[in-house]
Design brief:
globular
């Protein structure tokens, strides 16, 4: 299953970019992964995704998982043959309403407010943790 992180706006702080890039390299051991940064919401229409892709919007009102539950959810997607999962991350103003209409799932990273750049790091780390858990890797322990 391919994982694609779709970010509205750029990750400007080098520290956050380095962390996201590090987790993406780790995720590649388990799954193809790509990170796409879009300048504006209309650019989402140009993304060529699998027609049956799961579109997951990062939304404070979305479903919150414990790490183990998130790993099981991701594993079920993979095991039922989902070929692509896109994770949509808004910018400092949040996410456009059009993204909510496109999303098939909504995911909350927790009840606290995170900057959009930090949320990207947390998402990348949790994706890596999920794949590591599914593979029985010692990282999560």
């Amino acid at each position: 299953m391919k994982i694609r992180l779709v970010m509205l706006g750029k990750t400007r702080r080098n520290e956050f970019r380095s962390l996201v890039d590090d987790y993406l390299r780790r995720i590649e051991r388990f799954s193809p992964v790509e990170c796409v940064e879009l300048r504006h919401e209309a650019a989402l229409a140009r993304i060529k995704a699998d027609p049956n892709a799961v579109w997951v919007l990062l939304d404070p009102a979305g479903r919150a998982f414990r790490s183990e539950e998130f790993a099981k959810w991701l594993g079920r997607l993979r095991d039922r043959g989902t070929r692509e999962a896109l994770f949509l991350c808004g910018d400092a103003q949040g996410f456009p309403a059009s993204w909510l209409a496109r999303a098939t799932e909504r995911l909350s990273l927790g009840p606290m407010t995170l900057s959009h750049e930090l949320a990207r790091v947390v998402l990348a780390e949790q994706l890596y943790r999920a794949f590591a858990l599914l593979a029985g890797h010692p990282y999560p322990k």
